[in-house]
Amino acid sequence: MNPNSQFSLRDLEAAVSAGVIDSTAFERLRPFLAQRGATMPPPATAKTSRFDLMHVLWYAGALITMSAMGLFSTLAFGAMGGTGLTATGFLYGLGLWYVGHRLWQSEETRTPGGLLIAAAVSMVPLAVFGIQSAANAWAGFEAPGTFQSFYKYIKGGWVPMEVATLVVSVLAARRYPFAFIAFPAAMCLWFLSMDLTAWFADDKHFDYTLRRQVSLVFGMVLFVAVWIYELRPRRADYAFWLHLVAAITFWGGLTFQSSSSEVGKFLYCLINVGLIMIAIYMGRRVYAVFGVIGIMTYLGHLAYTVFKDSLLFPFALSAFGLAMVAAGIWLARRRERIANWMEAHIPAELMALRPYPARVAGEAQRSSSLDKSPSGSTG
């Protein structure tokens, strides 16, 4: 038996239901476990998450390195030719991997090590582009242009670069369980969905309407895939970065859909409200962030179009905003009570479909409420 395992109130309730213990023993165990849980130190493996100045510098440095060799590469950079770009991609990738691998061995420098390994993964498109350029192999399409166009334009010829990046990302994640490695993989997966559509639909017929629809569908598919992935505990929180890309692609595809109907725009607002509800259920705040931005976008439409000549609209809207702040305070003070209500009223089958981190967080809130309840007091 694992010495670090803990029993929750739900486990005791299940034991009563199964006839393992009777209700009298259950009532005697509740205050005992509550007092014991309050005096026991946290497990030795528990760590307090932090994100201080060092982490900001590490992540910023890794993103700048990745962007310098990709998003912000200049025309002069592309003048090296296919062979030069291939050599640059391989040398940078191997160098970043080597330093990251060495840093990964120490717990103190594991975060910068993982970031450098993710940066090494981001060098794969550059190396593959160099090979494609030197061999003039563009998957049956015309040459898509310079390397920096990879991040700007949708072309079928980019597909080999994206497939290679996904393969290397999976291999790196299996060896180094670091969450940020999922970010370049998720971005390439999004690019791949676009470029594959351009491949099958022909670049000339891949208009902006189809691009928005592909982005919208990709966001939904990625969301469902990550949801299924999160139903079980994982070594690293790859899901955070996958959820981020899913939210960006879905919300972006949704927001840039053209609609001249006020009903359609109101439906857009309701979908963003739904994103906030999803954030609560999934335990992922990123959907709430985009949901709020979407609601603000709809309110801006009302202010500048529907009620542009209304004197009362700004006052009504400010009152609505203050009411939302008050509602947030009210909910914050009743967080545990709401969590207990959800546990009691939402069907067990639906609660079991929540991602594992959200289930654990809910169980922790439920257990902590036991310590504060009058029945859990030992006098």
Structure, explained:
There is one protein chain. This protein is mainly alpha-helical. The protein has a domain at 259-325. Helix 8 packs antiparallel against helix 9. It is globular, with a radius of gyration of 26 Å. The protein has helices at 9-17, 23-39, 53-68, 75-78, 81-104, 110-121, 124-135, 159-175, 182-201, 208-229, 238-255, 262-282, 285-306, 313-333, 335-345, 348-352, 356-372.
Mean pLDDT: 75
Principal-axis shape equals: globular
First-to-last CA distance: 33 Å
Unreliable residue stretches: 1-5, 38-49, 373-379
Count of helical segments? 17
Count of beta strands: 0
Oligomer: single chain
Q: Determine the structural class based on helices, strands and strand pairing.
A: mainly alpha
Percentage beta strand: under 5%
Order of helices and strands: HHHHHHHHHHHHHHHHH
How much helix, percentage-wise, in residues?
Answer: over 70%
Largest sheet: none
Which radius of gyration do the C-alpha atoms yield? 26 Å
Give a short overview.
The protein is mainly alpha-helical and 379 residues long. The protein is built from 17 helices and no strands.
